Amino acid sequence: MTHHFIYSSQFGFLNGATLNLLILKIVLLYFDSSQIYLLQKFLETFIEWDWKFPVKLEELTQKSQSWKEETEINFRKNQYLSKYNNYSNEERIRLEKHTNPIMVVLTLGYPEQNCSYNVNNSTRKIILKEFENGIDLLNNAKNTNDGNENLKQAWKTWLNGSKFLEKYKHFLFILCIDKFHSKEGENYCRFIESRIRLELIFTIEEDQKQIDYTHATSKENCLPKIFLEKYR
Q: In what residue span(s) does the Poly(A) polymerase central domain sit (predicted)?
């Protein structure tokens, strides 16, 4: 998922715990299947999943320790709606899309938690779009009638991903530099990075007529060479 730029909880994407649980869910359902088939079912299952319902592996007996939708909604409302008091009705409706549980993947054991809490309405669109690209690639490979080797090559191509700069036409470069290389400067830059996920929603995505979603990444190797030479 790293090569698809959808692996970073900080920016609202998948993390290790979420991926492990999603994969385990598929393995338990199709435990005697080939790797290629498991990959196919992974993508198909979670593209078609009704995300009004959580992904979970077992029911907990201690209900007091279970994840509660109402509690998460309250946390998300506090995160997305409490910062500003002067929302227009249109703006409030837009932000409320992010307050509902967007992608709930529940951990095993107690207390039960949603390990994909940081996923928002925008980043889920990106995640599912990448999954759909994988299924399209698989279907195209199947239609060529070139056998199993062609399927393997198709999956290899998808798993390797594509260049970030080839995904979009417009980019915003956010740079935080401390010329003294101090600990305080490093901590401040980390704080800025931790706020990007929310601030993109509060600001850049405000104009929904022109911007459907934003896609953040901190991968330096996807930057143009001129940026790397100038700012490293």
A: 3-147
